[in-house]
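Throughout our pipeline, every protein is held as a single compact record rather than as scattered files. The record that follows is passed on verbatim for readers who wish to inspect the format.
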Amino acid sequence: MLGNKVPRQKPCPHCKSTSALPETSTIHYEKFWLYRHCSSVQQRDRQAQKAGQLFSGLLAMNVVFLGSAFISSMIFNQVAITLSDVWILLSILKVLSLCWIIYYLLGTSRQPHAVLYRDSHAGTIWIRGSVLLFGSFSILLNVFQIGYSTILIQCKSKLDIVFPSIEIIFIFIQAFFLWHHSKDCIQVQHNFTRCGLMLTIATNLLLWILAVTNDTIHLEIDSQLREVEQRFGDNETTLCTCPNTTICKVFQKGYILLYPFSSEYCLVCCSVLYVMWKNVGRRISHHHVPHIKPKFKLQGVVFGPLLGAAAVVIGICVFMMYQIQATGSAPSHQVFVMYYSYYVVLLPLMSVSAVAGTIIHALEKRELDTVKNPTRSLDVILLMGAALGQIGMSYFSIVALVATDPTKLLNSLILSYSVLLIFQSITQNVFIIDGLHRQPLVAAAEATHAGHAGQHVVASELPGEEETSTRSKQEHTQMSASKEEETKEEQNREGHSQRRVSMLELGQEIRKASLSYIHSYSHLNWKRRALREISFFLVLCNIILWVMPTFGAHPVFENGLEKSFYGYSTWFAIVNFGLPLGVFYRMHSVGGLLEVYVTA
């Protein structure tokens, strides 16, 4: 009996088959020590990861609450807490964040086995490009602020120069850090890295809150100068005025023009840093890494760029006419009618395009991408969260207009604009989120086939280079066989023939490129063509809708309708919260639509 029980309990490890032992066909792995040990290690790693994320999140929450309390105290009681106090706190936070970033660059990232995995979805080229673009404008903004404060040094404190100087260093080092390390999945010093990332996120978030509160100054300059002076609460504002010099006016206008880029830079940095925080300690499987990444190519689109370019050109004209009226004097009634009419025409086109794209997504038989992706999850959260800014303002406008008099022309246009803006934001979010959760079509063989077919079409339809060279040789031979006394005429005729040959070759190259593009366009099926057309059209529309409020077009405050209904302070707070979120939503939508275009 003992001889029969031993092989059943402990089968030979070198045996290739256990079919002869029916009792051992079901192996209970949980009884093995190695399995239990590995499972406990994995469970402890998950618990440590959750604990590290919780601790770093609590750190960021406390820092944000402390900074928000300082900024709120400055707004409500400028005597006890001044702007200088807020600047000192933010300078301390920026110095601490810079110390951690430098330590990460020189220490953590250079350790052995520190960066074994890199998230291919994080830090896309347009996100990192946005960091560099907005960071450059933010640096230029601080340069203008330093120059403006230097001219008015007799009525400015030294902090007006020190704070933007620290800001320039912080922006430059942070942009360098995000450009090179936004894809890192760091595998060492997890908790310290999480705390450093959360501290940097909290610092950028507080800088955004301060930028939002200070943005009221620039809006009030155009509308009610006296209330700006009352907001400061002292007589220093009236005495510390810019002298009538060109350089001072340049610094002042440049600072006001570039001011919105600072808040945009802070929001973009927060989103990239959050993805890095989620990727700390993350291990990416090899089958999750795409072997061939889809690249952005301007192929398969014809009508989208044309319609989008028309929307951009018309929008620029409307924006320039509005700005001329707004800077010269109070905007007239006709300017507001023109501005809102442009939106009332454009927003339905964008909504219909987004609905059509969503229907095409439903018709496509494409698998969903269910792989864990922190970047995609953050994109969805940012799209839904940032859209709440302009949706909230729209609902406030709807209530105010319906309660007063919606029958007037301007009131009806603003009411239509508010309703259409809500519908457009919702439909565009559905289209982008649906497109982000679909598997990309990487058709390498299809592209190769298209290239060969294009070459075949070009070779069959276009005259070859041999025919052109033979024709030129024959012409040259005929010209050289003429009489010697007509050499000048022959040279002129030869030059004319060479120009004719060069023009012919140029026409052939243009025709070859156009035929290749048309073939690549016709090679895609109608669903992919339609998705690319819609995505490109929406990209251009969102760009112009980002440009107009970013560079100073704020009719939601300047028309005076909602302001008279809710009161100056209440409506100003609503606009000051919703407008920056709306601007960020347009910019973030461009990145999401480019992702949809590339994967279509």
Observations:
- The chain has 20 helices and two strands.
- Confidence is low (pLDDT under 50) at residues 1-27, 219-239, 443-473.
- Strands lie at 115-118, 184-186.
